[in-house]
Amino acid sequence: MKYLWNLMLAVTLSGCASMGDIEDPQSALNTPKSFxxxxxxxxxxxxxxxxxxxxxxxxxLIDQALAQSPDIRLAQIRVSQAAAVADQAGAEHxxxxxxxxxxxxxxxxxxxxxxxxxxxxxxxxxxxGVEARYTFDFWxxxxxxxxxxxxxxxxxxxxxxxxxxxxxxxxxxxxxxLSRLLEVKKLAENALELRTQTLRIVESRVxxxxxxxxxxxxxxxxxxxxxxxxxxxxxxxGLQRNTLAAxxxxxxxxxxxxxxxxxxxxxxxxPPFIPAELIGQRADVVAARWxxxxxxxxxxxxxxxxxxxxxxxxxxxxxxxxxSVGLSDWLDAGSRTYSIEPAISLPIFDAGRLRAHLKERVSxxxxxxETYNHVLLTAVRDAANQMVSxxxxxxxxxxxxxxxxxxxxxxxxxxxxxxxxxTNYLTxxxxxxxxxxxxxxxxxxxxxxxxxxxELNRALGGGFDTSNSTMHFTGKSS
Length: 478
Prior knowledge:
This protein has helices spanning 2-14, 56-68, 70-91, 141-207, 213-248, 276-279, 283-304, 353-419, 425-459, and strands at residues 96-107, 122-135, 309-322, 336-345. It folds into 2 domains: 35-93 and 142-308 and 353-468, Outer membrane efflux proteins (OEP), CATH 1.20.1600; 97-136 and 309-345, Outer membrane efflux proteins (OEP), CATH 2.20.200. The protein is an alpha+beta fold. The model is unreliable at 11-15 and 470-478 (pLDDT under 50). It has 9 helices and 4 strands; from the N terminus they run αααββααααββαα. It holds the Pfam family OEP. Belongs to the outer membrane factor (OMF) (TC 1.B.17) family. This is Efflux transporter outer membrane subunit. It is a lipid-anchor.
């Protein structure tokens, strides 16, 4: 046996296939700073950032969505699938032990199988025992395979968080849009009332002979146009409620009476620069990084295939071969049998299969690295865009307040002058339309402020923290 082991070791050291001149990976990982992000020490968004709007309906809707959204459940199932693969890879580290029971009935040939007394007769062979198999992981193939599986599991865990962050952001933005539509509808209803009042003034002036029927028909024509606008808004509100129900995995009529009750926030505090530490911890960036680590271990698997594979197969049990076997025969010491079978397989010639496989794994790593770089660049741009838009929004809000003040003053003045006969109806109509448009624009800007606030929280990671992850690249679950 000692001679056999020495021979196997010598063959192992001399029989490895050559990796030749296979090139190393060409791609290099970028960092958030590579794309303009800066270490700022900026605070991480709260994992429940939507609670800052103090809307109980929004909070309840997001809780329901996180609990029963099909997208979230699908992502969690994928984690379970990856974890099962990791369990299988981890099981390869240990020996396999199987019970074995065999019974064979046959006719023994006179010139081949056995001698007397079985030769030329029928007999039975019985074997009871235990088999153990173990593969030595000298080259780290099994360890690398486990790390690949753990890496994929960790990446999918991050993707669950990314799906949750995206879902909460989508629900919040849809909720803000519903709030905007309801506010615009209220403005349209106010416009209908305002135009009704204007029509009464026109009718009184027509009776007094101060205006003609032309002005009256113009004023009356504004009423059905406004009613049409209200009907269109009702349609948009219904569609928006259906969108929210679908995002949360609820029946389509579940939110038929939903009305947002948002409290104004204290404003969004913009970081002075793009926070590198938060970009690097975004769930999508973390998932891409874990896949780079998994692809790195994939190369180690491919390299290990170039080396010999050494297995050990052992058997111990009881065996009988006779014309008849009784229970007492199994207690006889002569029934005992055992064996040990070390085996080695050497990759000597495979027509380039191993080299091609290693090249493929190297290319896989390059793809994973460039995918990570793309995700990282997209994340930096995402945060930069939200910061630019939010930075430009405050001046827009201030300017719109001034616009609304002037439009309101102009309409009040035109209405008084018209009632006094100092101007015509066209002046009133133009001032009225300008005021209504200014009110709608203000509602739009306020809604966009909420949307951009939510988008900035999402772009900065949505509160995802890698320190809370249950999987790290240590080769085991933590």
